[in-house]
Give the backbone structure.
Amino acid sequence: MCGIVSYIGSREARSILLEGLKQLEYRGYDSAGLAIRQGNHIELYRAVGKIVELEKKIAGKEVKGTIGIAHTRWATHGEPTEENAHPHRDQNDDVFLIHNGIIENYLSLKKWMEKDGIVFRSQTDTEVLAQLIAINFEGDLSEAVRKAMSQVEGTFGLAVIHKNVPDEIVIARRGSPLIIGVSDHGYFAASDVSAMVRHTNKVVHLKDNELATLTAGGFSISTAQAIPIERDAETVEWRAEDAELNGFPHFMLKEIFEQPETIQNAMRGRLEPGEGVPKLGGIMPVWENIKECRHLVIVACGTSYYAGCVGRYVFEKLTEIDMEVELASEFRYRKLNFPPNTFILALSQSGETADTLAAIREAKRKGASLLGIVNVVGSSISRETEAGVYNHAGPEIGVASTKIFTSQLTILTLLALLLGRHQKLSLTEGVEAIRALQLLPDQVRAVLSQDNHIRAIAEKYHKRSNWLFLGRKFNYPIAMEGALKLKEVSYIHAEGYAAGEMKHGPIALINPDMPTVAIAPMDDMYDKMISNINEIKSRKGPIIAIATQGDEKVKELSDEIIEIPPTLDYLYPILAVIPCQLLAYHCANLLKRDIDKPRNLAKSVTVE
Ligand code: G6P
């Protein structure tokens, strides 16, 4: 969702900020803007639509300052108009502010200000914050921000400059991520590392209820109560080239093709083949409790949730643990009973998804212990969980998650295997699992090598407006994820169903116009999937089967077949999802969709 990037240093801010905004595009946005200090005044430019619209507005203008703040907005309060785009100002154009999050008490604050004659120019909650900082300003910008922090309810990551404070940017955080970047030519503040990764990989994470003052020569952090904080910069492993397309037409395709490496990275240094047991250092802080864990609840949203659904079957196969998987957004409405030693495991690429964060906070209040599998190092979920495992998959830029899904499945399998070896699995079973895991990167390469074949299938079917995806047990969540991928990037309507439920409804839809993607590898559900395929065939529904290499039976029954190499039944999802990702990608590409930034979607959903 909304993205923040700010800069103060020795270089011109304009190109640094525009480049930073482009790196944030993937988060999803509908308008953008920036404010740059130029001598004694502050220049403001805003535009609806893509960053190029903003660039057009600035083209030919003299904007030469070295201090500036910039923002991509994903509308929550008020339509995506220029007046509603950030930066927002107070009525006297003294304060310029960018903000991620939601000010919950903005209406009451606004009413109070309007009574005092303060004039508003937008429908946003953010403008209230700018006015509030202006009202509180008595010469010290950080003090004014501190006071405003005590008056607002809700969430914020913000950066602010003031006309009469020529050499400072003040930033503050409550609930929305904010990172300081330390480069050799100045200081950055951004909502994620990608906005500054071309300039630095040294970052300092701001925590909730902290604020910081950035100057061209340094930064200082303090709490909302003005207690100074010393915090050293950390080095992040992301490289500038991770945020480049490297010859691929879209990030989604690049990330699909990165999966042999990202699956490898999820296992790197974590396998002990001789012992048949993985090593997960990040879990060790809670090992004494978790090794005896009998109740685990996975919470997640979107694609991460479907990874959790696969995880449930994998844990049930490999461990003695009672499993539940909950959509994080529904978690708080459930009356979950937490027996002693219950663990909650949050799955999240960004580590910032608002519902997932709210779910773990609620679980903590109820006495559960918290684990996380997170890609973004230092993110809120990684900080608020007691232990966890990082994906080490590099930035995922495409809004539709691909490489993180298979990375999450790999790590879930490692975790289940680790606990399973303690609880019930033999050495032989452990060794067999690790051998199969080690084969995965090459097996994924083999699936990816069928890209042309999958594109040809997409060419044949991309104009069909309804698709069905079917799978059972381990691959039932893959049917849901396959349908989600197709919906997200191609806007084709698709349903993901447990194949056993087909007779209870979706079979009514089967006709020669509706393709069914049947995920039917040679696992313990094989015979049942063959029956489903037969039922579709007898109703003349076109079948695109994802089946194990050399499966002549499925080949005969299907219109199209995509082969995946043989593996253990609980590892098939990692291979079966790849054709689904490629099908979605190619359909979207043929339909000329905005693949990396699908309409209305955001990469990181930081509001509930
Ligand atoms: C958004 C993204 C999805 C992602 C979901 C959960 O909806 O578009 O790709 O799966 O959020 O995000 P998380 O960062 O928590 O995995």
In short: Residues 301-304, 348-350, 353, 356, 399-401, 601, 603-605 surround 6-O-phosphono-alpha-D-glucopyranose (CB under 6 Å).
